[in-house]
Design a protein that fits this description.
Maltoporin, Chain A, 22-stranded antiparallel barrel, globular, binds copper (II) ion
């Protein structure tokens, strides 16, 4: 229950405390005996302490060191960390991995943890231990949803939380309720949420389509007795109409059923955790129901270019982990698996026989095993190190298409259909199964040099196998996991896994009234997967014909292995001016470059600084924040990326606790209604009189928003 006077200190602790490794107090009190010297290696934002405008959890990443967000729609935020994004970032929602149904990541993993249900979002700063997840080449993010707390007595009591939010920039509203029946051993919980919004406003007009609607239902049960805890949860997530103007289609529906279960034994010798999770996701998207549908042109009638895609994904996974406490630290052993399946078919509602198999039974399975060690070395040194092996198995079924649905005897559709059959036959006759054996290691050393100063150095080898899109996209399309660069792509079955070698150095320096946590990193990636100009004459011809008809773009890219490097610096700092007044800062610098040719990487966050001044009183709090982004002219020529200019926005927010357990937060984003362009928000792809097609998506106008949270 958030009591106001402790609220701020909680926020501060969560963000800045240098805590003892490993696995602080949450589950195992006994572990407190083992204090490994360690640095602040994660950054957590708790929903209780943070005001977020509805509705996408990924938005919170903007205010975390090293992190950012590739935004393709209001519910479609793709995590970015230190220049890497998409599948390179491992995202866990309550321990579960979710590979969404959308081949363009319309349902990116964080969309499965709506803000109104979120308890906290945590990013690992820098090199993630191999025990955290299977493929952490670009980082690791953990979303934890609110699941209630056990009661203190034998008798059952009824508790819960309501969360109501609204914002003016799109008339967005979210209403939700969490209800629990609980005693000291049992916790039965339920959650319902409904949220919707109309189109967004920016200083010169309206972004259309950017409306959304989403419903969510959760049911769960937890049990604890002695050293045992058990939990099981099921959830249904239904997204309705939701615009994604940076992509070629919009969401008509995403219907997901999710489950997860966890057993934990917390003994004196160690902690055993077993988790099983899965999800079933069904998704429809179209290019005609929310945006202006294709219009007649010289080459083809508009109705021939209506497109709808039905896409599904299935996920099943498990984590099995044992942490063993020994005199000088902890051993951590684990096995994990994540098995996914994807299907997607494109059709035209106006022309029955038209179809194109986008993905057919595309399967990607990973089995992993790891050993990790946290070691106390004397009084002033701590070492974490580990090794992991992942075996990735992929395969996909046969594909086909009918691009001449009217059975015309000659002309463009016939030529396109023949070329498409040629591509499909080539794809179908090749061996499409792939097995990758990926080996990883990491080591992190912390050294307490003097009181309040801990030095840190880390190194790692991390891997990532290609995504199903990167290997199995056989026909030139934009199904690219949300690249939103406007390019069409083809895949490559025999791609190699990416291998990154990284070093990271920094220190934690904290005193009575200040803290400073800088980190510098350099990451070299061999076989970095990046689109390069496609060399298949057939693919190039199809893309050219499509583009002539008014669909997609010519000159497709093909996913290929290249060489790349990332480097930069991020800093987190805090300075208390007085008991009530605190200055906070986050600064991020990242560079992403191709090494094999002279080009920058696509969609890399511009340098940015967040400065915030917080004033805390007995029963209220106010915070003034300035967010400044530098120009980004280090742009990818390969991806035809457009530069953006520098900008600053001012945000103001405040909180009043007006009754026990009840608080109201109000905020204004972009106080001065500044016109700006977010480099990571890509380009407009839907007809809009206020924004040119394929020009930069504008940043949002002034937004007044509020949240009422009541724990009962
Ligand atoms: Cu989609």
């Amino acid at each position: 229950m958030p009591k106001l006077n402790c609220l701020f200190s909680l926020a501060t602790l969560g963000t800045f405390a240098t805590f003892a490794l490993p696995l602080a107090a949450q589950d195992a009190p006994r572990i407190n005996e083992i204090i490994v010297v360690g640095v602040q290696d994660s950054h957590t934002v708790a929903t209780d302490d943070t005001l977020v405008a509805p509705a996408d959890t990924a938005q919170m990443l903007r205010k975390m060191p090293g992190a950012n967000l590739n935004k393709n729609g209001e519910l479609t935020g793709i995590a970015q960390y230190r220049g890497m994004f998409g599948d390179r970032i491992s995202v866990a929602v309550d321990g579960a991995q979710i590979s969404g149904a959308g081949p363009n990541s319309m349902d990116a993993p964080l969309s499965y943890a709506p803000v109104a249900l979120l308890e906290s979002l945590t990013i690992n700063r820098g090199i993630a231990p191999v025990s955290t997840a299977q493929e952490t080449i670009g980082g690791y993010i953990q979303a934890k949803t609110y699941s209630g707390e056990f009661g203190g007595r034998e008798a059952f009591e009824f508790t819960g939380r309501t969360y109501i939010g609204t914002q003016t920039v799109n008339e967005g509203v979210v209403a939700s309720g969490f209800f629990a029946m609980t005693n000291r051993n049992h916790l039965i919980r339920g959650f319902v949420m409904n949220e919707s919004a109309s189109d967004l406003e920016f200083p010169d007009g309206v972004i259309t389509p950017s409306e959304y609607e989403r419903e969510r239902f959760d049911l769960g049960y937890s049990f604890r007795r002695g050293e045992h805890t058990f939990a099981v949860d099921i959830a249904r997530n239904n997204t309705g109409d939701a615009g994604t103007p940076a992509l070629p289609m919009d969401i008509l529906s995403i219907d997901s059923d999710l489950f997860r279960t966890r057993y934990r034994h917390t003994g004196t010798a160690g902690t055993l955790t077993a988790e099983l999770f899965g999800s079933n996701n069904e998704h429809w998207m179209t290019n005609f129901h929310l945006r202006r549908p294709p219009q007649d042109n010289m080459m083809s009638p508009g109705r021939m270019r209506f497109r709808q895609t039905f896409a599904t994904s299935e996920n099943l996974g498990f984590n099995l982990k044992y942490e063993q406490y020994v005199d000088n630290g902890v051993w951590n052993y684990g096995l994990d698996g994540h098995f996914t399946n994807h299907d997607a078919v494109v059709t035209n509602p106006n022309v029955g026989p038209f179809f194109l198999t986008n993905f057919n039974d595309s399967q990607r399975d990973i089995l992993g095993a790891f050993v990790e060690r946290s070691l106390v070395i004397g009084e002033t040194m701590g070492l974490d190190a580990g090794v992991r092996y992942n075996r990735v198995t992929m395969n996909t079924g046969e594909v086909g298409s009918n691009l001449n649905p009217m059975n015309l005897p000659a002309g463009m559709p016939v030529m396109m259909n023949n070329l498409s059959s040629l591509l499909a036959n080539g794809f179908n006759s090749d061996d499409r199964s792939q097995i990758d054996n990926n080996f990883e290691w990491f080591a992190r050393l912390s050294l307490e040099a003097s009181r309040g100063v801990i030095w840190y150095v880390g190194a790692a080898r991390k891997t990532r196998s290609p995504s199903y899109q990167e290997r199995y996209l056989w026909s030139p399309m934009e199904s690219t996991g949300g690249m939103a660069d406007g390019k069409t792509y083809v895949g490559r079955v025999d791609l190699n896994p990416e291998v990154a070698h990284e070093i990271e150095v920094g220190f934690d320096w904290s005193g009575a009234n200040f803290a400073l946590y800088p980190r510098a990193f350099y990451k070299n990636v061999t076989d970095f997967i990046q689109g390069t100009p496609a060399t298949s004459a057939v693919a190039n011809n199809i893309a050219m014909m499509m583009s002539n008809m008014g669909m997609g773009a010519p000159d497709p890219l093909q996913f290929n292995n290249t060489e790349a490097r990332f480097y930069g610096l991020d800093v987190e700092a805090r300075y208390s001016l007085s008991d009530r007044l605190t200055l906070r800062a986050i600064a991020n610098v990242v560079r992403g470059e191709r090494k094999d040719i002279n080009d920058y990487l696509y969609r890399i966050s511009p340098d940015n600084v967040i400065l915030a001044l917080d004033y805390t009183s007995e029963d209220w709090l106010v915070s003034l924040e300035s967010i400044s982004y530098a120009a980004q002219d280090r742009i990818s020529l390969t991806n035809l990326e457009q530069a953006t200019e520098a900008y600053s926005v001012l945000n103001l927010s405040g909180l009043i606790e007006f009754a026990a357990g009840a608080e109201l937060r109000l905020g204004v984003e972009n106080l001065l209604n500044e016109t700006y362009f977010d480099h990571l928000a890509a380009y407009n792809r839907a007809y809009n009189p206020d924004i040119q097609t394929r020009s930069r998506m504008p940043g949002l106008g002034r937004n007044v928003y509020g949240r009422l949270m009541w724990y009962f």
